[in-house]
Design a protein that fits this description.
With about 220 residues, the protein is mostly beta strands. It has one helix at about 120-125, and strands at about 5-10, 15-20, 25-30, 80-85, 85-90, 95-100, 105-110, 130-135, 135-140, 145-150, 155-160, 175-180, 180-185, 195-200, 210-215. It is about 0% helix and about 35% strand. Strand 12 (about 175-180) and strand 13 (about 180-185) form a beta hairpin.
Length: about 220
């Protein structure tokens, strides 16, 4: 039987999930079908479909619980997990957990306190997930900050305030989308009178590249 262990390679600073073989030797990664799911919709087609066929109509009834990871203080868990190189990234309000997708073991966690005084979806703790591109992971906070983290360590790389909250009732609950060197993210709060927009931000720095207002001025 094969066991799995986590090794953090100090030379390159990346997470390497290694298989322990019967001879006690390590090899890179479990020998399982590999297909990354680095964004909310899976791929740029946004069809949320996986071509993997190991689960099918003949064996789906055999599915059983393999592991469970409890997430504290998450009364409204709406995250779509992202999976890259065997690591699963799951969000709650203002928090992201990196888990070994094979065992469910926590590799790292980044979190900050939730924001008091919010209204709507964000006040209930809604967050739909992250986007992973290269060595960076991107997520939105409840008060509309766009964050970039190192996907291997959870270290904060930059923090961009998308709005002038609390001056205006903006919030955020969605998952960002990365295309090239731009991170696209929108805001919530329309039901609270906020004027909606979609923004594009430089993936390397968080600097705003452009903003499109979805609601015109009076």
């Amino acid at each position: 039987q094969t066991n799995f262990d986590l090794q953090l390679a100090t030379a390159d600073g990346k997470i390497h999930l290694l298989t322990i073989g019967t001879a006690g030797l390590y090899s890179e990664g479990p020998t399982l079908p590999k297909l990354d799911w680095p964004r909310y919709d899976g791929s740029y087609t946004s069809n949320r479909n996986s071509p993997l066929d190991q689960i099918n109509t003949a064996n789906v009834q055999q599915l059983a619980l393999k592991w469970m990871f409890p997430i504290a203080d998450a009364p409204r868990l709406e995250s779509t997990p992202a999976v890259v190189d065997g690591v699963m990234y799951v969000t709650a309000a203002n928090a992201v957990y990196a888990l070994d997708a094979v065992s469910g073991r926590q590799l790292w966690v980044y979190r900050r306190p939730t924001t008091p005084g919010l209204l709507g979806e964000a006040a209930g703790g809604a967050n739909r997930g992250v986007a992973v591109e290269g060595e960076r992971l991107f997520m939105l906070t409840d008060n509309a900050h766009l964050l970039a983290l190192n996907k291997n360590t959870g270290k904060l790389l930059w923090d961009t305030a998308m709005t002038d909250w609390p001056k205006s009732q903006y919030s955020a609950t969605g998952a960002p989308l990365v295309i090239g060197d731009l991170v696209f993210a929108g805001v919530a709060g329309g039901e609270e009178g906020a004027r909606g927009f979609l923004g594009a931000y430089q993936a390397s720095t968080g600097e705003e590249a452009w903003r499109f207002w979805t609601i015109p001025k009076p």
